[in-house]
Amino acid sequence: GQILETHLGLAAKGLGEQIDKMLKQQRAIAELRNFLDKIYNKVGGEQEQLDTLTDDEILKLAGNLSKGVPLATPVFDGAEEGQIKELLELAELPRSGQQILFD
């Protein structure tokens, strides 16, 4: 459980970094909207109606998420391993979640 939560946090940080990169590269709003849709609506959980947001609202949301995407899971019913792997992949991180550890 705790290891999966650590991987979920890693994915959340990586997703924020991807969003930040997209903002700095001034990617098209449609591309940014599609990426946010993948995060919020393709991995599971409650569906978010991102299509109701204006372009300015999408940019503001993306700016708020650029340091990391807040994620929450219910107590004793956390995210499934497959969902975490999908988020890691979206964040362009290894699906295994393995990292080099320096001691």
Q: What does this entry look like structurally?
A:
The protein contains 4 helices and no strands. The protein is globular, with a radius of gyration of 14 Å. Helix 1 packs antiparallel against helix 2, helix 1 crosses helix 3 (about 55-65) and helix 2 (about 30-40) crosses helix 3 (about 55-65). It has one domain (about 1-90): Dna-directed Rna Polymerase Ii 140kd Polypeptide, Chain: B, Domain 6 (Beta Barrel), CATH 2.40.270. By secondary structure, it is mainly α. The model has no long low-confidence stretch (mean pLDDT about 90). The longest helix has 23 residues, at about 1-25. It comes from Acinetobacter sp. DD75. Keywords: DNA-directed RNA polymerase, Nucleotidyltransferase, Transcription, Transferase.
Describe the structure in brief.
Helices cover 55% and strands 0% of the residues.
Please render the helix and strand layout as text.
Elements: H1 2-24, H2 29-41, H3 55-65, H4 81-90
Protein name: DNA-directed RNA polymerase
GO cellular component, one term: DNA-directed RNA polymerase complex
EC number: 2.7.7.6
What labels describe this entry?
mainly alpha; Dna-directed Rna Polymerase Ii 140kd Polypeptide, Chain: B, Domain 6; globular; DNA-directed RNA polymerase; nucleotidyltransferase; DNA binding; EC 2.7.7.6
Strand fraction equals under 5%
Total number of beta strands: 0
Straight-line N-to-C gap: 23 Å
In quaternary terms, these chains amount to: single chain
Radius of gyration: 14 Å
Average pLDDT across residues?
89
State the secondary-structure class: mainly alpha
Write out the CATH superfamily name: DNA-directed RNA polymerase, subunit 2, domain 6
Count of runs of 4 or more consecutive helical residues: 4
Biggest β-sheet strands, sense, barrel: none
Briefly note the CATH topology name.
Dna-directed Rna Polymerase Ii 140kd Polypeptide, Chain: B, Domain 6
Low-confidence stretches: none
Q: What percentage of residues falls in helices of 4 or more residues?
A: 55-70%
CATH architectural arrangement = Beta Barrel
Backbone shape? globular
Order of helices and strands: HHHH
Structural domain tally: 1
CATH class: Mainly Beta
